[in-house]
Amino acid sequence: KQEVTQIPAALSVPEGENLVLNCSFTDSAIYNLQWFRQDPGKGLTSLLLIQSSQREQTSGRLNASLDKSSGRSTLYIAASQPGDSATYLCASILIKAAGNKLTFGGGTRVLVKP
Amino acid sequence: DGGITQSPKYLFRKEGQNVTLSCEQNLNHDAMYWYRQDPGQGLRLIYYSQIVNDFQKGDIAEGYSVSREKKESFPLTVTSAQKNPTAFYLCASRPQGGNTEAFFGQGTRLTVV
Fold first, then answer.
1. How far apart are CA A101 and CA A104, in angstroms?
2. Is the peptide bond preceding residue B85 cis, with omega within 30 degrees of 0?
3. Whole-number pLDDT of residue B1
4. Is the link from the previous residue into B95 a cis peptide, with omega within 30 of 0?
5. Separation CA B77–CA B111 (nearest Å)
6. What is the mean pLDDT of each run of 10 residues along chain B (113 residues)?
7. Which one of A1, B4, B5, B62 has the fewest CB atoms closer than 10 angstroms to its CB?
8. Do A46 and B101 touch (CB under 8 A)?
9. Residue B42: which of A31, A97, A107 has the nearest Cβ?
10. How far apart are CA B86 and CA B38, in angstroms?
11. What is the least distance, in Å, from the CA of B52 to any CA of chain A?
12. What does the alpha-carbon distance between residue B92 and residue B104 come to, in Å, rounded to a whole number?
C-alpha cells in the first residue's frame, strides 16, 4: 500500500523567500507524481505533473523534482508572494493500483506574510 | 470552458435523508472519481469509474452509491446508512491511463442538520 507523507504540515515564510515543500512516498513503482494547490473551501488545482521517467518539471516560478530512488518529490516556489498562501498537496499513482487512483499526502499549509 | 462542475456548492441533509451530489465534466475523460476530505485526514477515495456503466468501490464506499450512465456524469448519493456524512466532497476526472493528469471540481460541502 502506498503511503504519501508531507512534512511539515504547516509553513510560514516572509514574502520574497523561496518555498520548499516536501513529499515522500513508500513505493517507487509509480506512473507519476502530481502537485496540487487548494485554497480554503475550494477544489484542487493541478500545478505540475511529473512522469516517472522525468527528474523535474517547471512552470513559471514553480519547479518540481522527482527522485524515485529515495521516494521523494520537492516543490520549489521561487520568490514567494502572499497570493501563494494555500495548502499544497502531492499525490502519486501506483502502477499496480486498481483504477489508477491517486494516493494523497496530508498537505502542507503555507502562509506567506507580506 | 472545459472543466468539471460540481453542484450544489453547499448541501444540507437531515438525519435519515438521502442526498445526491452532481458531478459533470466536458473534458471527454473516461475515468471519474469521488473523494471525501475531512480536516486532518486528507483525501480518501469513495468510488471510481473507468468507463460508462462500470464503477468500483474505493476505500470508504460504505453508505454511498454512484451511477455512470453517461460519460460526462458521475453522481454520488449519500445514503442514510452513512453515519457521518458531514465533509467536503471532491469529484475528479482524467483520461484513461495511469500517466495522465487528474483534474478536480470545486467541491460540495455537505452538512448534516
1. 10
2. no
3. 61
4. no
5. 14
6. 90 91 96 93 92 95 97 96 93 88 96 90
7. A1
8. yes
9. A107
10. 8
11. 14
12. 4
Closest among B81, B75, B87, B95 to B28, alpha carbons compared: B95
Residue B14: other Cβ atoms inside 10 A: 9
Q: Are A78 and A61 in contact (CB under 8 A)?
A: yes
Compute CA distances B92 → A61, B14, B107, whole Å.
26, 26, 10
- For the segment A97-106, the average pLDDT, to the nearest whole number, is 87
Which grid coordinates belong to A20? 520548499
CA Rg value for chain A: 14
A contact test, residue of B27, B99, B103, B111 with most A CBs within 10 A: B99
Which grid coordinates are listed for B89? 466532497
